Each structure stands twice: as structure tokens, then as C-alpha cells.
Amino acid sequence: MKVICTATSSKDFDLSDVKTVLVPNHQYDVEIGDEYLVMGIKVNWDSSCVYYLINVPGHDAAWYPYLLFEIVENNIPNEWDCCCYNSKTDFMEEVRFICGFKELCNPQFYYNLVLGEEEQRIYIKRKIELERYYLIKDS
């Protein structure tokens, strides 16, 4: 899946739905007009807001609210896994739904993604695979 950035701040967000924003007009490290590969999709228990896992150049992978983007390519690889959780205890009380490369759907991997060296290595490997998927698909 590919998205293009259409906003860089939370100034027009309904903060009762986008629970990850603690202050109005939060500025995100994305650039309007830039295209990003979506490495995962999730919905948390505390809202209906969809978040995309995106790697902005020069930054670690992070979850961004869908409200910042417009979808330009809606296909996802057949190899992606999707998981729905029946209760908050299934996924450490955060994630209700998650979809992405298979490791991302593992709770331990999910929570270690930012800090874990092995998780970062796998993330980069999966990102390269996704880039190749779109190169082949688009050619």
C-alpha cells in the first residue's frame, strides 16, 4: 500500500478519536506531497482511528494517523497477515486490529520494533521486499 502526505499537523483532527495526539496542532515529521510505503495498518482499542506504519527517511518507523494521507495504491502483498483481537489482554491492551508483514502481528515483535536491533533488521528486510513488490507490480 502506498500513501501520499496531504497534511503535517493534527489541527483538524477530532482529538476524541485520535488518542495518540495529546496536544492540538501536533506537527508530524512527514512532508506534504511525499509518497510513503505503508508497512502495517492498525486500529487501537481506544479509538476507531486507523494508523499506518511508515518509515520517514531519517527517522525510525512510526505509526501515523490515516488523516495525514491519501491512498494512492491500495494493494497489499498476499503474504501479509491480519489479526483481530477479542480482548484487550490479547495484545497488551493496545491493538484491536493489525495487518502487515507476518512478524508485525507478533506482540513481542510489535513492542520491540522501536528498540530491538533484530526487529529493526527484520523491518528493513520486509521494507526492501515491499519495495521490490511494487517495482515488479508497477513495471
Summarize the structure in words.
The protein has 139 residues and is α+β, with helices and mostly antiparallel strands. The protein has one domain (2-138). 20% of the residues lie in helices and 26% in strands. It contains two helices and eight strands. It has helices spanning 107-112, 117-138, and strands spanning 2-5, 35-37, 40-44, 50-54, 62-65, 69-73, 81-84, 95-100. The strands form two sheets. Strands 5-4-3-8-7 form a five-stranded antiparallel β-sheet, with no helix packed on it. The chain has a three-stranded antiparallel β-sheet with strand order 2-1-6. The longest helix has 22 residues, at 117-138. It is globular, with a radius of gyration of 15 Å. The model has no long low-confidence stretch (mean pLDDT 86).
Quickly count the domains.
Answer: 1
Order of helices and strands: EEEEEEEEHH
**Outline type:** globular
Give me the secondary-structure category. Answer: alpha+beta
Number of helices: 2
The end-to-end distance, rounded to whole angstroms, is: 16 Å
pLDDT average, as an integer? 86
* Portion in helices: 10-25%
Strand and helix map with partners:
Layout lengths: L1 E4 L29 E3 L2 E5 L5 E5 L7 E4 L3 E5 L7 E4 L10 E6 L6 H6 L4 H22 L1
Antiparallel strand pairs: 1-2, 1-6, 3-4, 3-8, 4-5, 7-8
The gist of it:
The chain is 20% helix and 26% strand. The protein is of the alpha+beta class and 139 residues long.
What attributes does this structure have?
139 residues; 5-stranded antiparallel beta sheet; 8 strands; alpha+beta; 20% helix; 3-stranded antiparallel beta sheet
